[in-house]
User: Fold Hydrogenase expression/formation protein HypE from Xiamenia xianingshaonis.
Amino acid sequence: MDETVMLGHGSGGSMMKRIIDEVFFDAYGSDELREGNDAAVLPLDQNGGSLAFSTDSFVVTPHFFPGGDIGRLAVCGTVNDVATSGAVPQYLSCGFILEEGFPMDDLRRICTSMAEAAKEAGVKIVTGDTKVVNRGHGDGVFINTSGAGMVPPGVRLGGQFIQPGDKVLVSGTLGDHGITIMSCRESLSFTSPLESDAAPLNHLIADVLAAAPNVRCFRDPTRGGLASTLNELAEQAGVDITVEEADVPVKPAVQGACDMLGYDVLQVANEGKMVCVVAADQAEAALAAMRANPYGRDAALIGDVSAARADRGPKVMLRTALGSTRFLDMLVGEQLPRIC
Amino acid sequence: MDETVMLGHGSGGSMMKRIIDEVFFDAYGSDELREGNDAAVLPLDQNGGSLAFSTDSFVVTPHFFPGGDIGRLAVCGTVNDVATSGAVPQYLSCGFILEEGFPMDDLRRICTSMAEAAKEAGVKIVTGDTKVVNRGHGDGVFINTSGAGMVPPGVRLGGQFIQPGDKVLVSGTLGDHGITIMSCRESLSFTSPLESDAAPLNHLIADVLAAAPNVRCFRDPTRGGLASTLNELAEQAGVDITVEEADVPVKPAVQGACDMLGYDVLQVANEGKMVCVVAADQAEAALAAMRANPYGRDAALIGDVSAARADRGPKVMLRTALGSTRFLDMLVGEQLPRIC
Assistant:
């Protein structure tokens, strides 16, 4: 194990997996934590109901960017994580770590944005905390949100339920958030302006579940992008996943930026997209429900699940436009630090 | 309103109250948030049960100190906040914001400490998140914990239920945590060594509730100390509170350090103490239950509640050992930054 914390330990890729396995699980690895879904699903003592519970901290820089800001991300990110369990997100907590000297007007703007995103998602911010660190020991504003909601009876989603034969959908174009942040930082401009996709997807998830109850799982491809998310799912379920490159929706401007800068768009972060694995016979229904939602217009069926080969572990493969197939690996180090 | 964030906005005193009122409540002040208790108590859709939900971020420096570390604080602080509602704390989330270069061994030590505190409290860490910020933009480690638990049927606690005639208890000596942190920072040493009081108090709270069901509220006097906590409660209930200075338990070494350094011990932070307001006829039962718990051996009855005078707002008063009475004000600015 590395002797110090490195940026890659927060990347969403294999270095992060290592710090989680070797430090956090080693110290306090509960079954729920080890399950590895975005929200823990927890029995509540009295009545047999299940609580979905999730947490996320946000350290994105810059704080404001086209399509959103750190406040919108903080609400949408946790709403989406709770919703992946099939739960109805109801309540959010909000913990600020502010740096001395941060402009109060920027804080107001962030809070207003959080309020708007919460309203759109239909959740309430019900509890909070504020810490201030001395100048030079923070970076303006960090936000933690945690979220809670009840899982409807009979609903149980998670990567562990994926089976060979299932289909893989994605709710829209990939890479928009990561490339927008990167272009803000580098002051790049493109002929078609880019925007972050930050959005609350709980209503989209509810629509898909209503149309296709045999969804196995949802997962939002944030840090580490689609590649890391699919590798997590393949490992969790012990299956292979094959993605058709030509079917993956990517905006031309985003693809152009990736080509120019040497990024693999499948490893770039998204903040308003959902991966959905569903039984084959309900894949079309799920896709239609996604496309009928404003945040899912560009949804696509991008791949399918098969049994893992006996001679190696579960793998994710990409069938390229040229017809060749290559392994699609999890992000290893850090591609774009502090993307969310 | 101030134009930038200042350290005092995180103090637990009146500046923090201002940023909460004028920024956070203004943007997204839900009824639950405005209620002003340490944990929100929330209806869950299906079954009439109530969820207690609370969040806290920890930025204490140094990370390790006599009696505890940032990990123990992070678990105990949130367990205690959830427990103040009368709920049984069950589940914790844990969000780390790590600075690049933080020693992995220190992180392991913190996680081990969190695991021990969680075990003692009987809670599970069920969901987590890890972010890494670049060197110079954090301070080693910040931790957010959020906590959830069910409130038993019929239990409803909160500052709003305090009535004239009630009694005020505190579960032990005051100022231990704040003065320990301060003496670490300043490398002061005392003839009697000081220790932080960081401790999970959920079992103590359960013991008190079993013995004295007419408890009105619990609140832990962390940032801003007893003075700020009592002012919050007085304002929430619209009552006066009078404290007998001679009855407030303070260790001689802590009082000595306060006298030497010019701190008011009643404004110094605690991390393992609980203020309890209880109906007068159950005050002795509550006190006995506290004293029977290992974390409540020095518990004391320190004051009582009366109707607020018509000619001014609710006030907290201190009757000194000399027999005079003075107003005991909320902490205004910042006394000891980053105490938790």
